[in-house]
Design brief:
731 residues; mainly alpha; 27 helices; 70% helix
Length: 731
């Protein structure tokens, strides 16, 4: 037990194998020996194995039960289709192509749906082989219903799996830590603090890092299309944005001086209060948070920023004000998404970027399906790859008239990977494991012969070992164990001999080889290759977004949309698949940093678009033209970075946001326009800084040198509004 717990500390794999074995064996033995119905017995056992061994049913206990219930309905449809289309090889192949594509693409519905996709494929695979026997459809459906029902019962009462942590708790914990930092920082910036924010800043940064999806177990990732999952994802993003902007705000001022007013301190205090209220609401210990306090603090801060412009504040002060507004805007987004996550009614004026707060479930699903209905989506790529692999495997079985063709498709289904590199390594291990299992099962069948009683007594113990071997020891052990299990199973259904093990080895090799060939022909680079393309397209769309937003804010043209939002969503899923694939040793691009930059462009550009929906040209044409020129320079830098993605080249663009100051009396004549130009200037500065971050992310560590190269000098930005900077002031 000590040895086992070192490999499986919570015994999750063993408990799961035990649940599946009990459900499968009770169903199989009841139908095979008490009712004497081999067809129902086989379908009952494989139904339990499909959803218990080949699937990963996750969530709270009630959610898992609903997943089993939904899978039962889908399984009935697929078994019916497979039974009716088994009349000929080509009807079965066409049905396999359609079913494989639709079922695999359904994985866009999030981890709970994606977890059962492979298991559901089995319900068409099993009945789509000869003999063509539609008269046995009732027996097949009865077996499927019995197997899934017993598995669902075992899931609730027999060594039940612990419920995964609610992702809302993780977001709530992070919000609480960031709230403490925001409130202390607000007091320090207002002149009343004691300088104790450094430790809180580190704790807030750690909490924000814990919200990265790469650090969250798959079962706990809120990636479904529903309102709650979308709200939790956006709330986590808002907490991370708040944390980053708070750090920028703390670093924005000159050393030893106060660069914010009481209004900024009040704004941060309101942000801290919103974070604390959000934490209580997510934990269920408080009412839904309200945006009233943040809205009032934003209005007061807006008035103070007007005064700063008229007083000719220094660039550091102006930029600190931009950062403070960004913090408050992110906090407002957090409050709205937390309200959606806890089921509170959405306000009448929902921001455009939070459109899903008022959308129906059907619209949310339709939007998710349409977003990924593109060749650039890894979901569609995986679905097409798997459907082609299964269809080709089914045609090979029919043309070559292979016995036990079900095993060929099962091997293709279980061994196909999202990249050719991963598939080759898996096939080698799978064939080796199957060869070992074939030797063992062949020896057992040869020595035991037709004594069914021995097979019946040995099956439960060997099934537990076989189902647990894969998660604990890898593909080779899993294939070895499963080979022995299927040999003992079919030895109880009909007459068999030691050659059954030989057939099993042959079928696994054929099925795995088909998967390898299809994987090598259809998007062979998998998530790694698609990530390079998706990152480049997203950065190019980010460049277009920068130009479009600045054009809108300077009144140069009508607001036009870019595909950045859709590409950012595709980039998310591509990165998730990339993390699941094997990578070559050595330095790699920091794709997560690139992903963060793309999302920052998308999120805050939406905020600016909604803040200034119909902007007229400002009364300073020269200033507007200079901002558009700066936007073009920043956009050119992002386009260069997009061209550098995947070719090992580091972008060299260092755009400088430089504009002439505007006289104080001109600012006083149009303070609202001045604030709009200030926000445009601050956003361009942030985009320029993020571009430097993209360059660092794309640059791989160079070979070791005796003398390290000098760090490049950072570009500086000249102030945009008010009097020229004094000598020695930060630029």
């Amino acid at each position: 037990m000590a040895w086992l717990r070192r490999r499986d500390p919570s015994l999750a794999a063993v408990r799961r194998a035990g649940r599946v074995t009990v459900a499968a064996c009770v169903a199989f033995y009841t139908c095979r020996y008490l009712v004497d119905d081999p067809i129902t017995a086989v379908y009952a056992l494989f139904a339990a194995v499909a959803l218990g061994g080949l699937s990963d049913v996750t969530g709270q206990p009630a959610e898992r039960t609903r997943t089993y219930a939904g899978s039962l309905v889908v399984a009935g449809v697929l078994v019916t289709l497979g039974t009716l289309l088994a009349m000929s090889t080509w009807t079965a192949v066409l049905g396999m192509l359609a079913v494989g594509l639709v079922v695999a693409y359904a994985g866009v519905g999030g981890p709970r749906v994606a977890g059962v996709v492979n298991g559901l494929q089995l319900f068409y695979v099993l009945p789509c082989f000869p003999p063509y026997a539609p008269d046995t459809l009732d027996q097949r459906l009865l077996g499927v219903g019995l197997g899934i029902t017993l598995l669902a019962v075992a899931d609730r009462v027999l060594w039940p799996a612990p419920a995964p942590a609610d992702p809302a708790v993780r977001v709530a914990d992070a919000a609480g830590r960031v709230a403490a930092y925001a409130q202390v920082l607000g007091r320090e910036l207002g002149g009343g603090g004691d300088g104790g924010s450094a430790a809180l800043r580190a704790a807030a940064a750690d909490a924000a890092e814990s919200l990265r999806l790469s650090t969250v177990p798959i079962a706990e990732r809120p990636l479904g299309p529903g309102v709650r999952d979308r709200c939790l994802i956006r709330a986590a993003a808002a907490v991370r944005v708040i944390t980053g902007r708070l750090g920028a705000l703390a670093d924005a001022g000159p050393a030893g001086g106060q660069h914010t007013s009481a209004a900024t301190a009040q704004l941060l205090d309101a942000v801290g209060g919103a974070l604390a209220e959000s934490r209580e609401a997510l934990l269920g210990s408080g009412p839904p948070p309200s945006t009233d306090r943040i809205v009032a603090a934003l209005a007061a801060h807006r008035e103070r920023r007007r005064d700063q412009l008229l007083d000719g504040a220094e660039p550091s002060t102006l930029r600190a004000g931009v950062s403070a507004v960004a913090v408050a805007e992110a906090a407002r987004s957090l409050v709205l998404t937390v309200r959606g996550a806890v089921g509170a009614p959405a306000p009448a004026d929902v921001p455009e970027e939070l459109w899903f707060l008022t959308a129906s479930t059907g619209r949310l699903w339709w939007q998710r399906l349409c977003t990924h209905l593109t060749p650039r989506s890894v979901y569609l790529q995986n679905a097409v790859r798997l459907a082609l692999g299964l269809a080709v495997a089914r045609s090979v079985v029919g043309v070559l008239d292979l016995s036990h063709g079900f095993w060929v498709l099962l091997a293709t289904l279980s061994l196909m990977r999202t990249s050719a590199v991963a598939g080759r390594s898996v096939l080698v291990r799978a064939v080796a494991g199957t060869a070992v299992g074939a030797l063992v099962s062949g020896a057992v069948l040869f020595l035991v012969g037709g004594d069914v009683v021995i097979y019946a007594w040995a099956l439960p113990a060997l099934m537990v070992v076989g189902l647990a071997a894969g998660p604990l020891f890898g593909v080779a052990a899993g294939q070895a164990g499963f080979t022995v299990v299927v040999a003992l199973l079919f030895a109880q259904v009909g007459p068999t001999d030691w050659r059954l093990a030989e057939v099993r080895l042959e079928d696994v090799f054929v099925g795995g080889l088909v998967g390898i060939l299809i994987g090598a022909a259809v998007w062979p680079r998998g998530g790694n290759g698609e990530l390079t393309r998706a990152a480049g397209e997203s950065l190019r769309a980010g460049a277009a977004e920068v130009v479009a937003v600045v054009d809108q804010l300077t009144g140069a043209g009508p607001a036009h949309r870019t595909p950045l939002g859709r590409l950012a969503a595709l980039l998310d899923q591509t990165y998730a698949q990339y993390r699941s694939e094997p990578t070559r040793p050595g330095p790699r691009v920091d794709w997560l940093a690139v992903l963060g930059v793309v999302h920052r462009i998308d999120d805050y550009s939406r905020t600016l678009r909604s803040r200034y929906p119909a902007a007229a040209p400002p009364p300073w044409p020269r200033l507007a033209a200079q901002l558009r020129t700066a936007a073009a320079d920043v956009a050119a830098g992002y386009r260069e970075a997009a061209a550098a993605v995947g070719v090992g080249r580091v972008p060299t663009a260092r755009p400088v946001v430089r504009v002439d100051p505007v006289p104080r009396d001109a600012l006083a004549a149009a303070p609202d326009d001045a604030l709009r130009m200030l926000d445009t200037w601050g956003w361009l500065l942030t985009m320029a800084d993020d571009l430097a971050g993209v360059g660092r992310a794309l640059s791989l560590p160079p070979p070791a040198r005796r003398h390290p190269p000098r760090a490049p000098r950072r570009p500086h930005a000249v102030r945009i509004l008010g009097r020229p900077p004094a000598a020695g002031s930060p630029r």
